[in-house]
Design goal:
heterodimer, A: 217 residues, alpha/beta, Aconitase, domain 4, seven-stranded mixed β-sheet, 29% helix, B: 472 residues, five-stranded parallel β-sheet, 19 strands, 33% helix, binds iron/sulfur cluster
């Protein structure tokens, strides 16, 4: 996984609550068996005027001029600012893949849906939950070319005016993200503990460890 | 010290170890796999040269992309076909059992899990799908995960998790005739909102929940995620035990008796303390119809569409306005004056035998209205289909003018050929009414199976509880 330490990037404001994963990446794109290449289809139904299908060449498609990410001043934005309950809906990791592939590294909102929030950390994306008041003040401050600096190590956001905003992040997730660590490697370092758990559990619940767990084909 | 909640018990039982910051490595008993969220996970294993930790704990099935007609001709869409074939190849390569499209046991992953006894009380159950919460109906801790976690579970049989908080949702009293599990859960979401359960595990309790069948309980837990909670739970009782007795993968002989004894402990202790408690009176719940593009935008069938102008919260007002525009509806419009173009009975929320029976009761001897372009009934699994046919439900539907299809996710998310066209309106028994969910530009109204069938017959929404109590 790509490590995240700090960035200074342009902010794109998306003034909407409950932006769901179906909107972030519509289901027709979930048919892909690849992990990359979802960026051009991010927010597909809102971003383009036509209906998108997987493998389409997006450079030829008509853009929706009213859609925020299509505005000139938000090109190359690295930080997305949104409202409550961002990422609600499905567990599809294609949602953070698409956001990351598009170029976002940080998401700021008053709250995130749990599964989505978790998925972000696995993909080098930092979701930051701030109080609704602070998010609102950021929306109000925002002018063309507005940039924020985000430092994960010190857990602070710095505005162009020099205002520092502290944010919370789970220490375990922070450590993994800062170092770009592979979760599976970390867990496999505890293989002995997992086996010990299985041995003990097998005494209490032997049926879970019998052949009957496998459906015969 | 106060007692433990059901969630506390399930959690404690699966902790391998806990780190200083409170995150725990949790052991996963059952991993369900489907074609959409697994290809990149298998690819990850392959690239790292890893093997599944325990092959027998995984069970795979293709459901999202499968066609619901002409199965023998395979999958026409080449991209869908590749995804389903990739699942088959991956399962063969990694030694994982998969129910193929031709297998009578094939179906929606959340329908076949309990049906086979692959998901059991007391288990931790995960799947790369948010509606994994369904399996919590049997007193299992079940939640959806992303693809990175699918790979993690395949490789380690564990997940790093932080414990959620406990919320109790109590529904007391008796439901009125014609009011179902779906109406209960829509009413709950209407009350607490789609973010109300964020950070919580919901336990559904109270006499109205206890009175539900396992199928009904699954409907309720299925939609816990629509209330923002990753997991929903219902305590084990006689209904649970009866349901699992003799399921193909349920423990047998002495193991069964040992399991049963253990499962009977799976309820919150009387003195358990919840972080939050929400209460609803069953008698107040009438059949529900969503009118917006989020499940919380829901109204009683005998009600009207609320006026955004009267909403004081600016954010909410705006989402209501946007929803009304997308749905092409007006404030003050009566719900019964909404006319669907299509009707969909199916999905992991409402495609079990009891759901089909409830719809068939309404459809029996009637005809689908001329204005309805398509009315689909899609059973949740091959076995549900077989059972329904044994009961003659297929004939009732077909005679009434419904189409009787093969099992899969179908028009719940329209990844296969079943979908809405732009602007079309649908009465659907599924769980999400997001923009474009059932097809680009499509408009979804979430309802119970009986309500969907009644809308198909009448051509517009009607209060099925009135039909069923004979007062209309
Ligand atoms: S039926 Fe719908 S909600 Fe359920 S698993 Fe399939 S697509 Fe997801």
């Amino acid at each position: 996984m790509r490590a995240f330490t700090k960035i200074t990037a342009r902010v794109a404001p998306f003034d909407r609550a409950n932006i769901d994963t179906d909107a972030i990446i519509p289901k027709q794109f979930l048919k892909s068996i690849r992990r990359a290449g979802f960026g051009p289809y991010l927010f597909d139904e809102w971003r383009y005027l036509d209906h998108g299908e997987p493998e389409m060449d997006c450079s030829q498609r008509p853009l929706n001029p009213d859609f925020v990410l299509n505005k000139a001043q938000y090109q190359n934005a690295g930080i997305l600012l949104a409202r409550e309950n961002f990422g609600c809906g499905s567990s599809r990791e294609h949602a953070p893949w698409a956001l990351e592939d598009f170029g976002f590294r940080v998401l700021i909102a008053p709250s995130f849906a749990d599964i989505f929030y978790n998925n972000c950390f696995k993909n080098g994306l930092l979701p930051i939950a701030l109080s609704a008041e602070i998010v609102d003040s950021l929306f109000k401050d925002l002018t063309d070319g507005y940039e924020l600096s985000v430092d994960l190590e010190s857990q602070t956001i710095t505005t162009p005016a020099g205002r520092e905003i502290a944010f919370d992040v789970d220490q375990n997730r922070k450590f993994r993200l800062l170092n770009g660590l592979d979760d599976i490697d970390l867990t496999l370092q505890h293989a002995e503990a997992i086996r010990a758990y299985e041995t003990e559990r097998a005494k209490r619940a032997p049926w879970l460890f019998s052949d009957a767990m496998t459906a015969k084909v | 010290m106060s007692g433990k909640t059901l969630y506390d018990k399930l959690w404690d039982d699966h902790v391998v170890f806990t780190e200083d910051d409170g995150s725990s490595l949790i052991y996963i008993d059952r991993h369900l796999v489907h074609e959409v969220t697994s290809p990149q996970a298998f690819e990850g294993l392959r690239l790292a040269g890893r093997k599944p930790w325990r092959q027998s704990r995984n069970l795979a099935v293709a459901d999202h992309n499968v066609p619901t007609t002409h199965r023998d001709q395979g999958i026409a869409d080449p991209i869908s076909r590749l995804q389903v074939e990739t699942l088959e190849k991956n399962c063969a390569e990694f030694g994982i059992t998969e129910f193929s499209m031709a297998d009578i046991r094939q179906g929606i992953v959340h329908v076949i899990g309990p049906e086979q006894g692959a998901t059991l009380p007391g288990m931790t159950v995960v799947c790369g799908d948010s509606h994994t919460s369904t399996h919590g109906a049997s007193g299992a801790l079940a939640f959806g995960i992303g693809t990175s976690e699918v790979e993690h579970v395949l490789a380690t049989q564990c997940l790093m998790q932080k414990k959620a908080r406990n919320m109790l949702v109590k529904v007391e009293g008796q439901l009125r005739a014609g009011v179902t599990a779906k109406d209960i859960v829509l009413a709950i979401i209407g009350k607490i909102g789609t973010a109300g359960g964020n950070g919580y595990t919901l336990e559904f309790a109270g006499s109205a929940i206890r009175a539900l069948s396992m199928e009904g309980r699954m409907t309720v837990c299925n939609m816990a995620i629509e209330a923002g909670a990753r997991a929903g739970l219902i305590a084990v009782d006689e209904t649970t035990i009866d349901y699992y007795r003799n399921r193909p993968l349920a423990p047998k002989g002495d193991d069964w008796f040992m399991a049963e004894r253990m499962w009977r402990q799976l309820h919150s202790d009387a003195d358990a303390v919840f972080d939050k408690v929400v209460e609803l009176a069953a008698f107040d719940i009438v059949p529900q119809v969503t009118w917006g593009t989020s499940p919380e935008l829901v109204a009683a069938v005998d009600g009207k569409i609320p006026d955004p102008a009267r909403e004081t919260d600016a954010g909410k007002r705006e989402s209501m306005q946007r929803a009304l525009q997308y749905m092409d509806l007006k404030p003050g419009q009566a719900i019964v004056d909404i006319y669907p173009d299509k009707v969909f009975i199916g999905s992991c929320t409402n495609s079990r035998i009891e759901d089909l029976r409830a719809a068939a009761v309404v459809a029996q001897g009637k005809k689908v209205a001329d204005t309805i372009k398509l009315a689909l009934v899609v059973p949740g699994s091959g076995l549900v289909k077989q059972q329904a046919e044994a009961e003659g439900l297929d004939k009732i539907f077909i005679e009434a003018g419904f189409e009787w299809r093969d099992p899969g996710c179908s028009m719940c998310l329209a990844m296969n050929a079943d979908r809405l066209e732009p602007g079309e309106r649908c009465a659907s028994t599924s769980n999400r009414n997001f923009e474009g969910r059932q097809g680009y530009g499509g408009r979804t109204h979430l309802v119970s199976p009986a309500m969907a069938a009644a809308a198909a017959i009448a051509g517009h929404f009607v209060d099925v509880s009135r039909i069923q109590s004979g007062s209309q």
